[in-house]
Every structure is written in C-alpha cells, then in structure tokens.
Amino acid sequence: MNESMDMLETNIDRWKEQALAEGREQGMLLGMQQGIQQGMASGIEQGRQQGLAQGERQLLQRLLDRRFGPLPDWALARLAHADAAQLEAWSEAVLDAAALSEVLGAPPH
C-alpha cells in the first residue's frame, strides 16, 4: 500500500507540474495576443491622428495659397512642423487675416 501511495503522490506531483506548465504557456500566449492587439490599436490611432493632421495641413496650405498667393519657403516650413493645435489655430485665423504674417507670424529675419 505504501508503494501505491508513493506512486499516486508522484503522479499528482507530475500532473501539478504539467498543469502549471500549461497554465504558464496559455498565460504567455494570452498576454502576447493582448499585447499585439493593444499595439495594433495604438498604431492605428497614431496613423489616424497623423492622417488628420496631414489633411488639415494640406487644406490650410490651399486656403493660404488662395488667399495670399504662393507661399514662401518659411511659411511652408512652419506648416510642415506645426502640430494639430497650431494648425487649428491658424485655420481659424486665415478667415480674418489681411496678411500671411497675421496667420503664421512674422517671417524670419
């Protein structure tokens, strides 16, 4: 009877080890899947934000071109480096501005 108890305990220990190993593997797979999903969602959102900013930038450039004529290099450089908040502010300013400098600020000296 002692031998069968030892064998049973050995089997139980082996089953525990197998169950823990399977649980760790499943946990790692689930974690990797969640990480991939979060990374994809973050990448999609970042791409969406960049696309919106690029669209705003292009629209503002067309409005400025139409209102003030072809833009000088300094103005194109400011547009290229502006963040979304700055583009939005300039887009509103273009409606009332009488000169390009009233929208984008003074040109560099």
Mean pLDDT: 88
| Major sheet attributes | none
How many helices in DSSP terms?
Answer: 4
SSE sequence, one letter per element = HHHH
What class would the helix/strand composition place it in? mainly alpha
* Poorly predicted runs: none
The total count of strands amounts to: 0
From the alpha carbons, calculate the radius of gyration and give it in angstroms: 31 Å
Distance between the termini: 98 Å
| Morphology | rod-shaped
Strand content: under 5%
Oligomer, anyone? Answer: single chain
Percent of residues in helices: over 70%
Written account of the structure:
The protein contains 4 helices and no strands. It has 109 residues and is mainly alpha-helical. The chain has helices spanning 2-68, 73-81, 84-93, 100-104.
List the helices and strands and how they pair.
Blueprint: H1 2-68, H2 73-81, H3 84-93, H4 100-104
Any descriptors?
109 residues, mainly alpha, 4 helices
A few lines on this structure:
83% of the residues lie in helices and 0% in strands.
